[in-house]
Design a protein that fits this description.
single chain; about 375 residues; alpha+beta; Aminoglycoside 3'-phosphotransferase, Chain: A, domain 2; 2 domains; 5-stranded antiparallel β-sheet; about 15% strand
Amino acid sequence: MVLESKEPVRLKDGPATRKMTAPMEIPDRVDQITAEWLTAALREGGSLGPGRVRSFQIDEIGLSTGLTTVIARLIPEYEGAPLEVPRTLIAKLPPQDEVTRALGTSLRLYERETRFFQELAPRAGIGSPALYYGATSDDGSSYILLLEDMGRVGTREGLRELTHDEARAGVVALARMHARWWENPELNRFTWLTAATGRAVNLAIQKKYNQAWPGVAERFKGRFPADIEQIGNRFGPALGRFLETYTRPPLTLIHGTPYPENVFFRRRNGNVDVVLISWQVVARRPGAWDIAWFIAYGLPTERRREHEDSLLRLYHSQLKEGGVPDYSLDRLVEDYRAGILRVLMAFVIAEDNLDFSFPGAGEIPNRWLERTAALTDWNCAELIPA
């Protein structure tokens, strides 16, 4: 989606430059947000100085593109506020569904996204929505983000496909972010980020996969190609070792799930900026894992096969241009293949834990099934530890 956009609201000493704390309890549901709470949150976040939110409308409610959060468009009506306050914004909270919420908490999804926007977003090296306010509970089970409205509310508009020009623009933007953080020791400062790739999280992911796979295999019986089912069966017992084996240097900051619904192309001053939303699985992993999501899942199979080689070479050349040394094309291909296996892992866990009945979400499994061909095209089973 290409958007005509103005600069987001960022007042001096606002959310782009400082960490925030909750002015009061974190709302658990959209209907618990009040005008008073919204006033305090926007003021704490630096997006509202004088004046107050007198009232607000909830324009639309949906599920996030990853189906792990509830999002709502809020339209505030101000009293005594300057013109440059946010006129619409997106509120993002955990769902009430206990299974989904437990998944988000155990994998630290809500904590990661909040901390990313508070601490890394302004200098991540790629576009993201402006943060107006963010807070998370100590146990990571509750959070709220107030974000710049990018014009699309979750899954309601359905799935979209990338054009070839968008695919190239996305690859270039991801390469620039990855080069910015390539083996950068500064990432070690963000313990919430490094913990997301630790052994405990890897084992939690393996447990979730092994709990999910039998049900997924049964529900999709007859729709899975036989070789994909065999890969799925083998992958579970080896998943923790796979993550440890292939989360190896060189590492960088990755978004985690840059599929088409999480990517915006924003036209500004004659240029098109790439903007990524939904940073819940931000991590320090191989950069090619982002590229696997973007290409192998983001493009229909035949278009992927047609353009995959040129897009991988474009990514490799952009890394070199960004100052990345000694990263061969062969190593990129191996990391990319591992990234395709990670897409399998993510879908299996999601399919068993998230609600795909929500408007716009029902086609996600069909899209994924069509794109499992990448697993066999690249002989990804070869990478599963024995």
